[in-house]
Amino acid sequence: MTIQESAEMYLETILILSNEKGSVRSIDIAKKMNYSKPSVSRAMKNLSSNGYISMDDNGLITLLPEGEKIARKIYERHEVLTACFIKLGVCQNTAEDDACRIEHVISDETFQALKKLL
């Protein structure tokens, strides 16, 4: 199944926040992504119904295996692309912004070639 870019961004953000804080709630995601709480709540319901996350009675969000797999893939792409752009002389902020956009559309073949290059 193909997953939309917005869902990938949410999953990546959940992974990052869980690494930073240990536990993640919708409000944490809303703050990190600068989205409204209702938008995040809708997205969490969709991610949950598609089997990417679980949410307990206290509102704690956990990545399920398929969600974690996608989140780690996108996060790795972000890190590698950012490092590649910085090596090319691009400033940190621009490198991160560009990596964030490209990480969702770059082919596996091209990404693997970039990883080898680094």
**Mean pLDDT rating:** 93
Going across the major beta sheet, what is the strand order?
A: 1-2
Note the beta-strand portion.
5-15%
Morphology: globular
Alpha carbon gyration radius: 15 Å
Tally of DSSP helical segments: 6
> Residue share in helices?
55-70%
State the end-to-end CA separation.
Answer: 30 Å
Element order: H for helix, E for strand:
HHHEEHHH
Question: How many β-strand runs?
Answer: 2
Structural class of the secondary structure composition? mainly alpha
Largest sheet: 2 strands, antiparallel
Low-confidence stretches: none
Quick description:
The protein is mostly helical.
Structure explained in plain terms:
By secondary structure, the chain is mainly α. It is 69% helix and 5% strand. It has a two-stranded antiparallel sheet.
Topology:
Layout: H1 5-21, H2 26-33, H3 37-49, E1 53-55, E2 61-63, H4 65-87, H5 92-102, H6 108-117
Antiparallel strand pairs: 1-2
